[in-house]
Amino acid sequence: MITQATIQQIMARADITDVVGSFVKLKKRGTNLLGLCPFHNEKTPSFTVSPAKEIYKCFGCGKSGNVVSFVMEHEKYSYPETLKWLAQRYQIEIEETQLNDDQRQALQVADSLFALNQFAQQFFTQQLTATEEGKAIGLSYFEERGFRNESIQKFQLGYSPEQRDAFTQAALQQQFNPELLQKAGLCNNRYDQLQDNYRSRVIFPIHNHSGKVLGFGARILTSTDKAPKYINTPENEIYSKSKILYGSYFARQAIDKTNECLLVEGYTDVISLHQAGIENVVASGGTALTIDQLRLIKKYTKNLTIVYDGDQAGIKAALRGLDLALEEGLEVKLVLIPDGDDPDSYVNKVGPAQFRTFVESNKKDVILFQLEVALQEAGGDAGQKAKVVNRIAESISRINKAEDFTKQQDYIKQCAALLKIEEAGLHNLVNKYIKDRISQQERRLPAAEAKVFEENAKQSQENEFDETTFTLLFKDELQEKEVARILLEFGSRNWDNGSSVADYIFDEIDESLIENEEVLRLFKVYQQEKKKGSFVNESQYFVHHSDQKLSAFAVSLLQFPHEESQRWKQEFNQATGYQSALFDKTYEEFIETLTPEKKEALLNYLQSEEDKTPEAIRSAVHYLKLKKIKRMLMDNQKDLETEKDPQEIKILLQTHEHLKKLERAMAESVGTVIIR
After folding, report:
1. How far apart are CA 609 and CA 590, in angstroms?
2. Which residues neighbour 469 within 8 Å (Cβ) at sequence distance 6 or greater?
3. pTM here?
4. Which of 235, 308, 331, 462 has the fewest C-beta atoms under 10 angstroms from its C-beta?
C-alpha cells in the first residue's frame, strides 16, 4: 500500500486546474473555471472547476468530486492506480508500506512481466514496420484487412518473424529471465532450447484499462490443421482471460459518453469499428461472458449491445453468459449481422453511417430473442416446449434487483403471450426459481449472515410515515448536513474565549443528535484529527481524504452555492452603461477599477455579510437541539396514548409541559434557519 505521507504529498502537489485542464478546455468565469463536461454530451458548458476549493461539479449530469475522483471517473482507474498516475505526472517517488515476502515477490513478478510485455510489444511493432519480412507478410495482411497506419499504430499491432528464436535472443540480450519469458507465453522450451512461441504470426497486444500490455493474441497467416488459428498468452500474475475485454482501454471514454457498450467477438472487429469512428466497442474473444467481464462493462454503462455474426454459431455465442448479464442488472440487446458477414466485413461493406443505422434499427431484446429461437427449435414437441418455459422462467428470475421489478413483470407478460400460457402460471414459476436460489444461498451462508440476508429481503416493503414525521426526518437530514458544512468551512475559526467554531459545535451537539451516517462519520473523523492537531485546512483534508465515500460527501457539502448570472451581468451592463469589458474581469481585477471610497464601501459590505456567519452557526446548532426536544415530545406522546396508570399519566403530562416550554424557548432562539 502507498504510505500516507506519499498520499499527502500527491494531494499537495496535484493541481485540479492542471489535471482537469489536460482533458477539458476550461475558460475563466469569475473565480471559477468553466468547460464542456467530459462525462456527458453537452453543447452549453455546465462543468465548473473551483481552484480555491479544489473541486469540480457538472450542473448538467450532477457529477462532482476532487482531482482524484476526476481521474478515477474519467480514466476508470482504481484509487491506487490514480495515485500512481498523479505521482508520475508530478514526479513524486512512491513509498509503500512494508510488504511480506510473498506480496513482495508477487509484485516483483508482476512488474517484471509488464516490463517484458512492453519490450515484446516494441519488438513486434518494429518487426512489422521496419523489416522487409514484416512489411511483406505482416503489414500486407493488415492492409488487406483495410487497416490504416493510424489504426495499426493506435492498437500497437506487430509481427513475429519466421526465425525460430528472433525474439528470444533479443530478450536475452536485454537480460530478461528465461523463466519469465516462458511464464509470459512468449517462448517455449523444446529440446532444451528456447524458441519463439508466436513466430510467423501477426500480433495483437492486449491492454489493461490503464494502457499497459497484459499479453498478446497471435494469429497464424497460413491455413493448416496442425496449428491453432490463434495463440493467446497463458494465465499468469497479470493476465487473466476471464477478466479482460479486448479494446477496453481504447473504448472506455466512448462508452462513457454514449452510455452504451457494443460487444463483438474478435480483435479485427474492434479495430475495424474503431477505424470507422465507432469507438464504444470491445471484444470478448469469442468466449462466454464472465462475471468479471460484465462488471468491467458495468463500470462504464448498464447498456450492453451484443453484435455477433448471424449464423448459428454466432447466435449461440451471443446467448452464452446471458443469465449472468441479467443478474448484474445490465440492459442487454442483440444485433445479428447478416449471414455471411461479421462486424469487420460488414462495416467495410456498408460504411460507418449505414452500420450505425443497422445496429440501431435491428436491436432485439435478448430474452425475447432467446425465447423465439428456443420455440423454433422446439417446434411442436410438447416436452421441448416445457423445457423452454422453464429455461425462460429461470432467465427472468435472474432479474432480481428491486429497481428492476417493473422490467421483470413486463418480461413475464410478454413471454407468457409468446408461450401462449397463463401469465399467473409463469409468474409463479419465476418466483419458484427466485425462492430456490435464495434457499441455496442461505444454506451456504452462516446463520448470522443468513439472518441479515432475510432482513434485507424484507426491506422491499415500504415503511409508511405520517406527514409530520416524514417532514421532520427530511428536514433533520438537511440541517445535519448544514452543520457538517459549517464544520468544514468554519471549524477552525475563532468563536469565543479562545475556542473555535468546532469546539462550540462539539460542546453543543451530542452524537446522539446525528442520524445521518455520513455526517456522523465526518464528525468522528474530524474529532479524531482535531485531537491529533493535524489540521492545516480541514475542508481540503476531507476533500482529499483517502476514504472516497468521505471525500465525495465533503465535496457535496462544499459545492458551488452561488453561480454568476450572465443575464444579470448583461442587464446591469445595459442599465448602467458600464463597459462590457469590465464584466469579463476577475474579482481582483474589478476591485482595482474602484475609487478608494467605493472600494472601502464594498469591503465594509462584504464584512457585514460575513458577520452573519455566527448567526447561521448558532441557528443550525440550535435547530438540532430543537430536533431532540421534538423527538422527546413524540416519544412522550406515544407513552401517553398507551399508559393506564393515573400517577404515570400525571408525570408524563408534566414532562410534556416542560418539553413544550423548552421547545418554545429554543424555537425563539433559532429564528429563521437557512438550509442550502
Report:
1. 19
2. 634
3. 0.61
4. 462
